[in-house]
Amino acid sequence: MIAIIDYGAGNIKSLQFALTKLELDSCLTTDKQTIENATAIILPGVGAFKDAIEALGELDLIRTIQQEASSGKPLLGICLGMQLFYERSYEDGDWQGLGLIQGDVKRIAESVKVPHMGWNTLSHRQKNPLLSNIKENAYVYFVHSYAVSSYQKEDLVSSADYGGMVPAVVQKENIIGMQFHPEKSGEVGLQLLQNFGEMIS
Amino acid sequence: MLAKRIVPCLDVDKGRVVKGRKFQNIQDVDDPVDLAKKYNQAGADELVFYDITASNENRNIFLDVVENVAAEIAIPFSVGGGIRTITDIHQTLRAGADKVSINSAAIKNPQLIKDAALKFGSQCVVLSIDAKAVSENTWQVYINGGRTNTEIDAIGWAIKGEQLGAGEIVINAIDVDGEKNGYNLELTRAIADKVNIPIIASGGAGTKEHFANVLQKGGADAALAASVFHYSEIQIPDLKEYLAASNIIVRREI
Q1: Which member of A40, A184, B211, B216 has the greatest number of CB atoms within 10 A?
Q2: What's the rounded Cα separation, in Å, for the pair B186 and B1?
Q3: Exactly one of A68, A91, A144, A183 is catalytic; which is it?
Q4: Is A144 assigned a catalytic role?
């Protein structure tokens, strides 16, 4: 069972529908016990960094997520969920993240339209089972105004080009992030979720 | 590279897709879920659903449509029509929509755009503007399905919309809507030049060349159309092949 952390606003139904199509069991939850018993955790996310980290704080889930991460359980962060895994974000201030991956989050360069909205191509930066059956230059759907800006090179799995290099898929051991929305990225997105599913089975 | 988007638009009335001309002469077209699946398979980049009745008693029928669409397709879609409050937005997103499109309600209450952007993020707040020419290079915003002139300058309203926190703008050119003589390139370009958020052009698509023109000369990031797709006058794979041959970046492998 994959625990999808349901900590507030946004479209998480599509994620559940996508997992169901792939025959991956999931539930929406904020319950610690359910999260601890799950085989994997997905942290979705749309909205503002501050609201999201505060919502996780109010639900008393920050330590739970950190503990599950250090126990080696697979975690997937999608969009803002991925950004929350990092140490800091400078979205309308200076906010502390979950600190599971080294690096920080900054606004996308003003030289391009913000938000980065639409289908963009992936450039693979390493060989990784997460990219199994995902072609170089495959299109995925992005919607975000902030992006990971400093990071460890070895954590970068695939990237997109938008006003500079945008980390798109990252992995640090059991912690995985996707800046785009795999549940909204057609067949390519479903394959990426399936690749995550293979890691946890 | 970021691709330009092709966006079929589905007007939904009491659970069915319909098509009108200049917002009149409404005709039945198809089941929304079947049509959404068809466009998804054909390579549409995104879909837009407008609830054109938007009366309270039909609201739940429409939210069922949203949920059924979300279950069947894995591409983004936005939903508009009758969205007036934060609660409407919350319900629509929870039903599985990725974005909401706000039109008349934003004119009456601009704070709605701001509140929605703060609560749900700019990325899911689309400002939809129905504009009509009042003189050369001057367009004003119409509401209530194109019936009421607000006398608000369309370009100024687009700029204000971005400031309020909208993440995207749909610009519907009422003068050319349903005529199939091409998008309003001047209006689209005038707005694209003034804002730094993505622009979706709407109204007037009749040929593949019209799409190429609005994505290049019009400066649009996406092109929306309804009847040319509903009546299979243009097939999306053919359109994308044509655009790629015109040096426009489009997503072709789905």
Answers
A1: B211
A2: 26
A3: A183
A4: no
Looking at domain B5-245, its CATH class is alpha beta
Residues 48-67 of B with CB under 8 A from A: 67
- Domain locations along chain B: 5-245
- Quick check: is B221 catalytic? no
In degrees rounded to 5, what are phi and psi of residue A84?
-65, -25
Chain B residues close to A114, C-beta within 8 Å: 196-197
| Of the candidates A117, A98, A116, the residue with the CA atom closest to the CA atom of residue A107 | A116
Query: What ipTM was predicted for this assembly?
Result: 0.92
Q: What is the CATH number of the domain that holds A61?
A: 3.40.50.880
> What is the tally of structural domains in chain A?
1
Residue range of the domain that includes A110: 2-200
Kindly tell me if the per-residue pLDDT of A8 is higher than 80. no
Residues of A in contact with B122 (CB under 8 A): 115, 145
User: Nearest-CA neighbor of A39 among A1, A77, A6?
Assistant: A1
Bridge-partner residues for A2, per DSSP?
A: A26, A40
Is the predicted pLDDT of residue B159 greater than 90, yes or no? yes
User: Smallest Cβ distance to B120: which of A21, A47, A181?
Assistant: A47
**Closest CA in chain B for residue A186:** B74
Please state, in angstroms and rounded to a whole number, the distance separating the CA atoms of residues A114 and A91: 13
Average pLDDT, chain B: 92
For position B82, what pLDDT does the model report? 86
Q: What is the pLDDT of residues B131-143, one digit of tens each?
A: 999 999 999 999 9
User: Which of A16, A119, A134, A142 to probe by mutation at the B interface, max B CB count within 10 Å?
Assistant: A119
Residues B8, B69 contacting (CB under 8 angstroms)? no
* Cβ contact A186–B121 (<8 Å): no
Separation in Å, CA of A121 to nearest CA in chain B? 6
Asked whether the beta carbons of residue B222 and residue A162 sit closer than 8 angstroms, the reply is no
What is residue A50's three-state secondary structure? Answer: helix
- What one-character-per-residue DSSP string does B21-57 give? ETTEEEEEEE-HHHHHHHHHHHT-S-EEEEESS--GG
Q: Is B123 on the interface with A (CB under 8 A)?
A: yes
| Virtual torsion, Cα A33, A36, A42, A47, nearest 10 deg | 50
CA distances from B89 to A181, A193, B81, B96, B124 (A): 20, 27, 11, 11, 10
Per-residue model confidence as pLDDT tens digits over B195-223? 999 999 999 999 999 999 999 999 999 99
Check: CB of residue B97 under 8 Å from CB of residue B47. no
Inter-chain residue contact A115 with B197, CB threshold 8 Å: yes
